[in-house]
Amino acid sequence: TAEGYTYSEAMKTFAGTGAVWDEATLATYLENPKAMVPGTKMAFGGVKKEDQRADLIAFLKTKP
Hints:
mainly alpha, 4 helices
């Protein structure tokens, strides 16, 4: 979460399912955000290439 960010109702509902943002969940979301969280306000079409998703996740893992 990010303090002050207004999350969509769809994302709040998804968060309420108890989903954990592990690598597998993030990879699925990054491939097609709107399929995983229908109604999300995220204007991001996803990362279609598996190797690019893996690279992005590896990069994010280097951040605190």
